[in-house]
Amino acid sequence: MKTFFDSSAFAKRYIDEKGSASVDEVCQNTDELALCVLCVPEIISALNRRVRERSIAHSDYTTAKKHLVDDVRDAVIVNLTSDVVSLSISILEHNAIRAMDALHVASAFAWGADLFVSSDKRQVKAAQKQGLKTKLV
Q1: What pLDDT was estimated at residue 137?
Q2: Sequence-distant (≥ 6) Cβ neighbours of residue 108 within 8 angstroms
Q3: 3-state SS, one letter per residue, for 69-108
Q4: pLDDT at 46
Q5: Residues 133, 125, 80, 70: is their CA dihedral positive or negative?
Q6: Which among 12, 66, 87, 135 would be 20 to 30 A from 124, CA to CA?
Q7: What is the pTM of this model?
Q8: Which residue numbers in the chain have pLDDT < 50?
Q9: Domain boundary assignment for the chain
């Protein structure tokens, strides 16, 4: 199965929170994993915010970053092509979602994902409107 994770869902691999077990289960049942080129910077940003807010220790950040880099080494990274950007514009015009969320949905569609995984209800709804099978975690 070709699985595409948006940042909100994939981050659950590195911070234990509601949905983390579901994300791990999906990863174990995935043949091919893809992420938008924006995913890693978004997760690093979220982890650094948690360090600044002191909800995680810097050592936890370092461990999470290492695991993220290891995971991404085997993932397909979907770049922002003109087709992805054009599709994201259409998605934005027909859905109440943020620009980054539309880029993730467009990237999943362009890659031909069998499953789109997110923890954002609006983004999942937009992905479903694009014809993608989804999982809300």
Answers
A1: 97
A2: 4, 6, 34, 36, 78, 116, 127, 132
A3: HHHHHCCEEECCCHHHHHHHHHHHHHCCCCHHHHHHHHHH
A4: 95
A5: negative
A6: 66
A7: 0.94
A8: none
A9: 2-136
